[in-house]
């Protein structure tokens, strides 16, 4: 079997070692890391065009076969080599012997009154992740997960409470889009036009698998989504953020949530490692190369980060960053320590930013009746960080 290259492990630092340690456990060897294989067969769902072309060559076939196969898989949702009628019978049989096209198992499909939907998918190892489909106006956005759980531990996020298990493979990341595509096509519903990496996990702690997934999303022979239609949201993993710009040109969103380090240290603990000004400078560099503005995400927490003074401070720190701000009304979850800012407070905060010349919108809360809103995705998985356990012990004062 031809062995495919994977992206060089980028240098996450020791403070995030918990994440990297568990990340290796997603199936074993280098090839399965790249493809998400559990069998000997290569899962083509997670192979981008450059790798697929090399693979065909190593099979003794013409590289242009990659383009044909990509179209069948990603544009027509086909998972059976026999259906690929522009390939000869011998090649189809050969492919079926060495490769497979395997998606995710849909466990639940919940419909919100506002038209959005939350899909719970089961992975081959039994872990479960969530994706959210949000139709609005002329477009439909799919919010996808990049990890099983999350290691970042942001204090206002429900996924953080669940702990962390492992990175998703490229096939599992693209698989969310692929399953959505097949489901929506079968129903005649609006196809996904935009993808945002705003589900479970921190995409920049899983660059090796996220980058080939982005390539597939942007490839004309696969999903053909323009760079404006694919957004990676990050809490600000600095080395990976710098590297992202070299590897791809997706739209960037930064989860900022505070205008100063003291508060951001509390809300987004990653800030203690990569402080706000350095992260914002990296964002400025990222968008500086002809890319558009970075989207600044700011979750509105009553009495925590929503004062007039904080709005003015936010405008100041964003002064030199080509940006637009998304205010996200906090979405509560069981035992969350925060409350949502009032609508009047959010309006006032927005107006202050407007007056400072910053384009600001308040994100509509979608799917909260099915726990599909920002920060409410939890999935279902074994927590390798034992965070849930530690929280339970803390809650009982350590008595059990
Ligand atoms: N780890 C990445 C992507 C996942 S979070 C990141 O931090 O950007 C996607 C967005 O939802 C982030 O902006 C996050 O801060 C926000 N979010 C998390 N919990 C939330 C909650 N309870 N209410 C509203 N937004 C929340």
Could you explain the architecture of this structure?
The structure is a single chain. It is built from 14 helices and 14 strands. The chain has about 400 residues and is an alpha/beta fold. It has two domains: about 10-100, DNA polymerase, domain 1 (Orthogonal Bundle), CATH 1.10.150; about 105-395, Aldolase class I (TIM Barrel). The strands form three sheets. Strands 3-4-5-6-9-10-11-12-13-14 form a ten-stranded mixed sheet. Strands 1-2 form a two-stranded parallel sheet. Strand 3 (about 105-110) and strand 4 form a beta hairpin. Helix 3 (about 50-60) crosses helix 4 (about 65-75), helix 7 runs parallel beside helix 8 (about 205-220) and helix 12 packs parallel to helix 13. The chain binds S-adenosyl-L-homocysteine.
In short, what is this structure?
The chain is an alpha/beta fold and 400 residues long. The protein contains 14 helices and 14 strands. It has 2 domains: 11-100, Orthogonal Bundle (DNA polymerase, domain 1), CATH 1.10.150.530; 105-395, Alpha-Beta Barrel (TIM Barrel).
């Amino acid at each position: 079997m031809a062995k495919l290259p994977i992206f060089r492990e980028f240098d996450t630092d020791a403070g995030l070692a918990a994440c990297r340690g568990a990340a290796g456990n997603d199936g074993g060897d280098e090839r399965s890391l790249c493809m998400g294989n559990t069998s000997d067969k290569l899962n083509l769902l997670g192979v981008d065009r450059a790798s697929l072309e090399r693979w065909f060559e190593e099979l003794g076939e013409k590289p242009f076969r990659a383009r044909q196969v990509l179209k069948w898989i990603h544009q027509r949702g086909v998972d059976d080599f026999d259906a690929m009628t522009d390939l000869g019978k011998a090649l189809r049989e050969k492919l079926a012997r060495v490769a497979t096209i395997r998606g995710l198992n849909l466990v639940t499909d919940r419909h919100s009154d506002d038209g959005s939907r939350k899909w719970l998918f089961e992975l081959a190892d039994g872990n479960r992740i969530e994706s959210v489909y949000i139709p609005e106006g002329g477009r439909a956005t799919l919010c996808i997960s990049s990890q099983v759980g999350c290691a970042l531990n942001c204090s206002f996020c429900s996924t953080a409470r669940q702990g962390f298990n492992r990175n998703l493979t490229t096939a599992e990341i693209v698989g969310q889009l692929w399953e959505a595509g097949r489901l929506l096509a079968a129903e005649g519903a609006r196809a996904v036009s935009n993808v945002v990496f705003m589900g479970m996990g921190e995409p920049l702690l899983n660059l090796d698998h996220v980058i080939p997934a982005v390539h597939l999303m942007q490839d004309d022979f696969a999903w053909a989504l323009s760079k404006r239609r694919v957004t990676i949201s990050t809490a600000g993993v600095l080395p990976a953020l710098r590297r992202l710009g070299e590897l791809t040109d997706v739209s960037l969103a930064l989860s900022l949530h505070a205008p100063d380090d003291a508060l951001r240290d509390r809300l987004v603990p990653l800030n203690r490692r990569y402080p706000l000004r350095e992260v914002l400078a990296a964002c400025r560099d990222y968008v500086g190369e002809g890319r558009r503005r970075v989207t600044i995400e700011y979750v509105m927490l009553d009495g925590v980060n929503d004062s007039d003074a904080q709005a003015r401070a936010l405008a100041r720190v964003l002064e030199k960053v080509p940006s637009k701000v998304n205010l996200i009304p906090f979405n509560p979850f069981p035992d969350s320590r925060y409350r949502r800012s009032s609508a009047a407070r959010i309006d006032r905060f927005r107006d202050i930013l407007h007056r400072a010349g910053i384009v600001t919108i308040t994100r509509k809360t979608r799917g909260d009746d099915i726990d599909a809103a920002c920060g409410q995705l939890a999935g279902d998985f074994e927590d390798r960080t034992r965070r849930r356990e530690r929280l339970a012990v803390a809650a009982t004062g350590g008595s059990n």
